[in-house]
Amino acid sequence: MEIVEKRGFKVAYMSIEDLSREAEVSLATVSRFWKLAGFKNFKDFKEYVKQRLETTPENKLKNSVLDVGDDNLFDRVIQQNYEFLFQTHAHLDQEALNKSAAEILQANRIFIYAPSSSEGLGSLLRHRLKRYGIPVEKTAKSGHEIYESMIHFAEGDVVIIFQYVKSLPESEIILDYTNELGVKTILFTDQLVEKMNQLADYVLYAHRGDSWAFHSMVTPTTVVEALVMLISQQLEDHSLKNLEKLSHLRRKYGDIVPN
Asked: Closest by alpha carbon to 128, among 242, 210, 21, 220?
């Protein structure tokens, strides 16, 4: 088909109706073409293209737009994240989640390594834990400064690592060093099979979409919140007291520093 030769991989970003209209042939003809070209159907061709496109942020966003299509965007995003949550529920190790909460409660200190797009997740977890009176620090994000954070790791601490898509050198050395020290580690990841998973004590999986797509942060946030709720349940009395203190401070100084 001439249009495929002309547009190349850009065809994957068209709907089958658009392709039919531009090629001036019927939908049935377009459908038959893909089988002749060695694909099951148009969708199979799209998957082939996606797997071969470089997974840059730009291409990930394009692929997400392609997946959404002409449907209502918000409805599609909701449906997509529901599917991601379902996959997460199917693969998340509930026992690892419970044990992670227990380790955090018993730890002397918590260190959080949250680079790149996971920085917001690390900040959220740190905010929640500090509210419960749990001592928590964020490590340096990258480069040689990570060593300045690692020198403070000690037995009895817990190191939490957020690592999505691919392994970073900093994550690898943190896991290697914590294993040497006997420091417990909790790994948040979207990889079911990865070398790092074997090095971490507890792995908390969140499905964020295919590797070529724009990655959702809804499921990782949900896993973080689930961990926080488990900790809160076990710290119920202490948590309530801290919240009461917080309410008291807000009432007392609200006219100076508004809520």
From this structure: 242
Going from the N-terminus, what domains does the chain have, and what CATH number goes with each?
A: 1-52 (1.10.10.10), 86-249 (3.40.50.10490)
Cα–Cα nearest to 157, from 198, 202, 103:
103
Given this model, what pLDDT does residue 203 score?
96
**What's the confidence (pLDDT) of residue 50?**
65
Strand, coil or helix: 188: strand
In the numeric block, which tokens belong to residue 121? 């997740």
From residue 48, give the alpha-carbon distance in Å to each of 13, 38, 72, 150, 212.
Answer: 12, 11, 26, 42, 11
Question: Which residues in the chain land under pLDDT 70?
Answer: 1-13, 49-71, 210-214, 237-240
Residue 36's pLDDT is 75
Torsion of CA 38, 39, 40, 43, to 10 degrees: -170
Model pLDDT, residue 175: 96
CB 227 within 8 A of CB 97: yes
Q: What is the pTM of this model?
A: 0.69
Residue type, 113: Y
**Reduced to 3 states, what is the DSSP secondary structure of residue 194?**
coil
